[in-house]
């Protein structure tokens, strides 16, 4: 099973998710998204793995979210994906992608739904 974790090592929830995946006997592909940001296309592909909307990938707590006006209800998915691609800190960490789907795993236990 291929599992990709968009990971931020300084985030406790992200570290917990990584530990849960490894405890399930899976060594995931770990993407340090602040160093290697996902492309706009990769973000779109992530949305296709599940019934996610772009807002599910958006880290609304990030100060930059409000500064860019992304917290307004009329902002489109396309605008959100463009912003995340330009500013990877806006990605709601950790995002996990498996053959069973994709989720922004907050709380960390949400990852269990994606594992065998």
UniProtKB/TrEMBL annotation:
<dbReference type="GO" id="GO:0008794">
    <property type="term" value="F:arsenate reductase (glutaredoxin) activity"/>
</dbReference>
<dbReference type="InterPro" id="IPR006660">
    <property type="entry name" value="Arsenate_reductase-like"/>
</dbReference>
<dbReference type="InterPro" id="IPR036249">
    <property type="entry name" value="Thioredoxin-like_sf"/>
</dbReference>
<keyword id="KW-0059">Arsenical resistance</keyword>
<protein>
    <recommendedName>
        <fullName>Arsenate reductase</fullName>
        <ecNumber>1.20.4.1</ecNumber>
    </recommendedName>
</protein>
<keyword id="KW-0560">Oxidoreductase</keyword>
<comment type="similarity">
    <text>Belongs to the ArsC family.</text>
</comment>
<dbReference type="InterPro" id="IPR006659">
    <property type="entry name" value="Arsenate_reductase"/>
</dbReference>
<dbReference type="Pfam" id="PF03960">
    <property type="entry name" value="ArsC"/>
</dbReference>
